[in-house]
């Protein structure tokens, strides 16, 4: 049997060899993708598929099969579309503000999906006293402070101040529960606002982005809890002294 296999291998023509190379590239690319050696959103995977489909299509020149040729032609077209898309994505330029929002909310998001996310929101130049969240009321927008400062008040008590880079409304973002504090600007500020429902819908379509955002929110919450605890300790100390 081995002798027959060896004879078949050495007896292959040029077209057969090219076809085998195509199969090796097909299987190798898919195996590398499953093992995590390749990413589906990189150049390598579509290029390997392009080589594989092109090789198999060339091998069909000896024994032409219209159905197989159609499939391989479709693979070539799809691979070229993927490569072109990646080229365009890599050339997408985000403004400094847009890039900062993307890094803060979902740092691992690719530029094309980051742009789709940013289109759901809006940049706002807010005046002093602009209310981002009101205690006891549902949060409509998740906000990011681009410039300026905001105060956090709870039950008439000032418990903290947040500044550039902070998120507002993230605590009840996923649950839709009422805001736990009132947050308003203490001076003219630049904000990025994104509708909560639109953001949740985007995250549902992009579960990897949801996990990324949860990590960003967790870091923001730790910072706010530390600041709030410090502020409350100071206030309680002042009351005891008085």
Automatic annotation (TrEMBL):
Entries under InterPro entries matching the protein: CBU_0592-like (IPR058058), cNMP-bd_dom (IPR000595), cNMP-bd_dom_sf (IPR018490), RmlC-like_jellyroll (IPR014710)
Keywords per UniProt: Membrane, Transmembrane, Transmembrane helix
Cross-referenced Pfam families: CBU_0592 (PF26604), cNMP_binding (PF00027)
SUPFAM superfamilies: cAMP-binding domain-like
Domain Cyclic nucleotide-binding: 105-208
Keyword rRNA-binding among UniProt keywords: no
TM ranges: 12-33, 67-88
The protein, known as: Cyclic nucleotide-binding domain-containing protein
Biological source species: Seohaeicola zhoushanensis
């Amino acid at each position: 049997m081995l002798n027959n296999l060896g004879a078949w291998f050495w007896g292959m023509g040029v077209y057969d060899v090219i076809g085998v190379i195509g199969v090796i590239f097909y299987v190798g690319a898919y195996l590398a993708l499953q093992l995590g050696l390749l990413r589906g959103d990189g150049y390598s995977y579509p290029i390997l598929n392009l080589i594989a489909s092109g090789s198999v299509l060339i091998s069909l020149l000896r024994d032409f099969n219209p159905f197989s040729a159609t499939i391989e032609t479709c693979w070539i077209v799809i691979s070229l579309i993927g490569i072109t898309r990646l080229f365009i994505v890599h050339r997408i330029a985000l403004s400094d503000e847009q890039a900062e929002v993307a890094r803060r909310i979902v740092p691992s998001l690719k530029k094309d999906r980051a742009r789709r996310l940013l289109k759901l929101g809006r940049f706002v130049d807010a005046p002093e006293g602009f209310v981002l969240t009101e205690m006891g009321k549902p949060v409509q927008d998740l906000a990011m402070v681009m410039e300026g400062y905001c105060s956090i008040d709870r039950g008439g008590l000032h418990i903290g101040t947040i500044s550039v880079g902070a998120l507002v409304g993230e605590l009840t973002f996923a649950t839709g529960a009422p805001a736990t504090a009132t947050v308003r600007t203490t001076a003219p500020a630049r904000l990025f606002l994104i509708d909560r429902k639109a953001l949740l819908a985007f995250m549902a379509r992009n579960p990897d982005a949801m996990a990324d955002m949860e990590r960003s929110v967790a870091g923001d919450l730790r910072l706010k809890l530390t600041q709030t605890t410090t502020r409350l300790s100071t206030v309680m100390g002042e009351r005891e002294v008085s």
